[in-house]
Design brief:
Elements lengths: L2 H9 L5 H8 L8 H13 L3 E6 L7 H21 L4 E4 L10 H17 L3 E4 L7 H14 L4 E6 L5 H10 L5 E5 L14 H17 L3 E5 L3 H13 L7 E6 L4 H9 L4 E7 L3 H11 L2 H9 L9
Parallel strand pairs: 1-2, 1-8, 2-3, 3-4, 4-5, 5-6, 6-7, 7-8
Helix pairs in contact: 1-12, 4-5, 5-6, 7-8, 8-9
Length: 306
């Protein structure tokens, strides 16, 4: 991580909110559900898939959890009403993990019940290392109660993730895993620090999951890892039904066009909501390199869809 990345990220809390909003506009669909639905519809018409994320995490009250649950239920219903793909992503601490695992499970179950009725899919995400054990325990309960409806996330930067992948496969039943590098700054005692180590672990976990029969949402903006996906599919064409690429809204759009043209399904992560400002600041503090990408994005045109 360069001194420039750290310097830029350290100044961002003092940047006026209107300027921050402009920096974030490329990567956030908007404040309202309608903004996200519009963006998702455009993506689908251009040949992409979409997953939707209501911004917000680390909530501290039951009222905040209830509000997030209600919004996700309405989002799923609106997606169904518009004939759009019903795929959403929810964060553990947004669903009350900090209030207790039982509370989080009950909140997630309310969304999962509606998702199952609407033939939708929900992704139970992963946050920093301190939440991993609780997240996986809640996911195990959700997976048993709503097989095929709920998926999870693994971060290749964490040493433990290869063992976690094997355990998830061994548990049996439908399994859908988003595989990411991980954005959090974790200590060297528990996480790979060198970029190539993180890439190598990502590729190993990809193999564990595919061989175990899991569907893998291969989340990457790294051409080397996209190449690893293509290599895996070349070795075993049957895996084409077990994989898609996932990418963030506004990031590496030229790569996503290339991957789509090569016949790989690409799903774009569409975040929205009034909590965009704390979301952006948290992400930039945890991964200062994102600050550079945000600034560069001001000078790049968004992909023309449709």
């Amino acid at each position: 991580m360069s001194w420039f990345d750290r310097a830029v990220a350290s100044t961002l809390p003092y940047v006026p909110k209107p300027v921050m909003e402009r920096l974030s506009r490329r990567y956030i669909a908007g404040l309202r559900r309608e903004d996200a639905l519009h963006a998702g519809g455009e993506l689908e018409r251009a040949g992409y898939r979409a997953t939707y994320d209501l911004l917000g995490e680390a909530v501290r009250t039951e009222a905040e959890v209830d509000a997030a649950v209600s919004e996700y239920v309405k989002l799923l219903e609106d997606l169904a009403a518009r004939g759009l793909g019903r795929n959403v992503s929810l964060k553990p601490t947004q669903m009350g993990l900090d209030l207790g695992e039982d509370h989080c499970f009950r909140a997630m179950a309310r969304v999962a019940e509606r998702a199952r009725a609407l033939d939708a899919f929900i992704r139970f995400e992963m946050e920093d290392a301190s939440t991993v054990d609780g997240t996986l325990r809640v996911f195990a309960r959700l997976r048993a109660a709503y097989p095929g409806t709920v998926g999870c996330v693994l971060q290749s930067m964490l040493f433990r993730s290869e063992a976690d992948a094997r355990a998830l496969v061994a548990a049996g039943g439908p399994l859908n895993v988003r595989l990411v590098k991980g954005i959090y700054v974790e200590p060297p005692e528990i996480a790979h620090q060198a970029p190539q180590q993180v890439r190598d672990a990502w590729i190993r976990i990809l193999g564990i999951l595919l061989k175990g029969g899991a569907f893998v949402a291969a989340a990457t903006h790294d051409e080397a890892l996209a190449g690893a996906v293509r290599d895996a599919l070349t070795r075993n064409r049957a895996w084409t039904q077990q994989i898609e690429i996932q990418m963030l809204l506004g990031v590496r759009e030229e790569l996503r066009r290339t991957l789509r043209a090569q016949g790989l399904p690409v799903r774009v992560y569409v975040p929205y909501g009034p909590e965009w400002h704390p979301y952006v600041l948290r992400r930039l503090r945890k991964n200062p390199k994102l600050a550079r990408y945000a600034i560069l994005g001001l000078f790049q045109k968004r992909e023309k869809l449709g």
